[in-house]
Amino acid sequence: MERPKVGVGVIVRKDGKVLLQRRTGSHGAGMWSLPGGHLEFGEQIEDCAARETLEEAGIAIKDIKVVGFTNDIMPDGKHYITIFVESTHVGGEARINEPSKCTGIGWFSWDSLPQPLFWPLKSFVENQGYPRRNI
Predict the structure, then answer these.
(1) Contact 94, 106 (CB under 8 A)
(2) Which stretches of the chain are DSSP H helices?
(3) pLDDT digits (tens, 9 = 90+) for 68-119
(4) What ranges do the domains of the chain cover?
(5) Considering the domain 5-127 in this protein, what is its CATH number?
(6) Cα–Cα distance between 119 and 78 in angstroms, integer?
(7) What is the pTM of this model?
(8) What does the alpha-carbon distance between residue 87 and residue 34 come to, in Å, rounded to a whole number?
(9) Burial (0-12, 13-18, 19+ Cβ within 10 Å), 82
(10) Which of 44, 42, 43, 20 is nearest to 32 (CA)?
């Protein structure tokens, strides 16, 4: 029996903005998403968040905490449970470390997020009213 996959989406805060990447080469190509990826077997959510953010964007983070999740059956047929975490930027300049997975990167205000948003992030923002407090 097939089961949903578990993803981790990392909200990296810096100067009132959040880090987003433009996806390519996978489902959701052309959409903007948070850094993140698959939770590995035996891995803590916070460790996954720190690992993926460093691997994908060259950013070190701290103060990692779970803030919600979504259960998404995406238009391409994939089914993901995405766990969202908040974190604080502590070092590194945002850069594209995986050009086969990402074609753009930048810091954005929650009031002016680029479109289109990757399905789990769109669901999280729309259905959970995130952010609930000022970033």
Answers:
(1) yes
(2) 45-57, 119-128
(3) 999 999 998 999 999 999 999 999 999 999 999 999 999 999 889 999 999 9
(4) 5-127
(5) 3.90.79.10
(6) 11
(7) 0.93
(8) 12
(9) buried
(10) 20
